[in-house]
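Kindly inspect this one:
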Amino acid sequence: MHVVTFTRSTPDTAAKVWVNDDGEVTWGDVGTVVNPWDEYSLEETIVQAGHGGGESTVIAIGSELHNDALKHSLAMGIQKALRVDEAGADMNDSLVWSALAAGAIRKLNDVDLVIFGKESVDVATDQHTYQLARSLGWTMLSYVSQIMEANYTAGTIQVERMLERGKQIVSGRLPAVISVLKGINEPRYPNFLGIRKAAKAQIPVWSAADLGIDLPTAATSALRYFNPPQREAATEMITGDTVKAKADTLIDRLFAEKVL
């Protein structure tokens, strides 16, 4: 059996991101990190591959920027890594992204389960996971908080899904695409030997031609990026001799500003 996950490098969530004078999005000299949600999908991929006695692979779609995330994944314990890139392709378009991802899964040929993190923080979307499942014609299970059973021999999977008002136990057929939530596991830290091994790894790069596919026409395009307008803010410290006096003043001000 074979478990695959996808990852990407994203700006650190604490980094300041802005649009420069050339209209390009930048975060300066701050390094990238693994998409935070992917920490959980990477860990779950390692766990599930271990339980099933199979192999694990991590894939990144896009430029060399994502090599750091792939090497981090190898350092954690993922067995194989590869990157899919196509010159001139709009990787921000989810149809193009999912076409390349589906081509990679088909080329691997023996995949039983694809695991995603909840979403990508830099683009704030998860639609590519659903489009991949649709392209492959596989079961799609989202918001998974626990994989209760994965029977790779029988080709079935049972998961617990988190909903707004409770939990749901769902069974489905393998192969499947799932997206997992933060609480599903506790991601491990790469150890020194893992980091050294990952640093030396040669990551193969596949193109659309290698996958034997023709990319769809991008359905979306970014016309331009711009910084949001500056917000003006003022701070007023409420004073008083007692806590009650301060609270009364605050309430009066809130009513005056029609906040309450």
